[in-house]
Amino acid sequence: MTGSVCSVLMGISLALAVPLHAMDQPVRAAAAPADTNAAARAELGRLVEAFKHAMLVKDGGAIRGMFLPGGSWFRALDPAALAAARTKNPEAKQLSPGSYEDLSKFLTTTQAAIEETFEKVHIETDGTVGMVWFDYRFISDGKQDHHGVETWQVVRGSDGWKISAMLYSVSPG
Q1: Tell me, what's the pLDDT at 22?
Q2: Is residue 30 part of a domain?
Q3: Domain membership flag for residue 31
Q4: What are the 10-residue block averages of pLDDT along the chain, 173 residues in total?
Q5: How far apart are CA 155 and CA 134, in angstroms?
Q6: pLDDT at position 141
Q7: What is the CATH number of the domain that holds 82?
Q8: How far apart are CA 130 and CA 118, in angstroms?
Q9: E strands present in the chain
Q10: Which structural domain range is residue 126 located in?
Q11: Under the phi-then-psi rule, with left for phi > 0, alpha for psi from -120 to 50, and beta for the rest, what region is 24?
């Protein structure tokens, strides 16, 4: 029995020796992967800035040039915005389609000073497709008209980044 106890203890000692030996080795951090999409994110950041500028100077043509023809565009009203819309039109829908053409026409015909501010901008991309997400505030004649969250799906083509889809929420004030 003494031999078997000794064998068990020797087995335990050997089992512990390997992990103890491994713990004596210095821990090496894995090299951080190279950020291969930093340039693409910077390009998308410039698209965001160009969009804001086009809104500010009411450049409908520039807005049209930032979108893929035939892309999708939807506006989603929050409950308060939907209730307000239904006071004017009882048939108003919570989710409604729109287009960059509608925005372009609005910009070129409105007399109001327009600005859209973006906060908490997040950009994700693999260099070919991507997503831009931010909080926005729509300001008309110096007063905030509405705000919400806006998201774009984007794609890089031979002529640069284009917005292929836009979805935004609308909250009053």
Answers
A1: 47
A2: no
A3: no
A4: 50 47 54 78 97 97 96 96 96 96 95 96 97 98 97 96 98 93
A5: 18
A6: 97
A7: 3.10.450.50
A8: 18
A9: 67-77, 95-97, 114-125, 129-140, 143-157, 160-172
A10: 38-172
A11: alpha
The 10 Å CB-count burial string (b at 16+, else e) for 61-70 is ebbbebbeee
Cα 66 to Cα 99: distance, rounded to the nearest angstrom: 12
User: In this structure, what DSSP letter does residue 78 have?
Assistant: -
* Residues 55 and 107: beta-carbon distance below 8 Å: yes
pTM of the predicted protein model? 0.78
Name the nearest CA neighbour of 95 among 85, 110, 105, 107. Answer: 85
Q: 70 lies in a domain?
A: yes
Whether residue 119 is contained in a domain is answered as yes
Q: What is the pLDDT of residue 134?
A: 98
Could you give the C-alpha distances from 46 to 18, 28, 62, 120, 161, in angstroms and in order? 54, 38, 13, 15, 10
Q: Which two tokens stand for residue 56?
A: 């500010």
CA–CA gap between residue 159 and residue 156 (Å, rounded): 8
Give residues with Cβ within 8 angstroms of 25, minimum separation 6: none
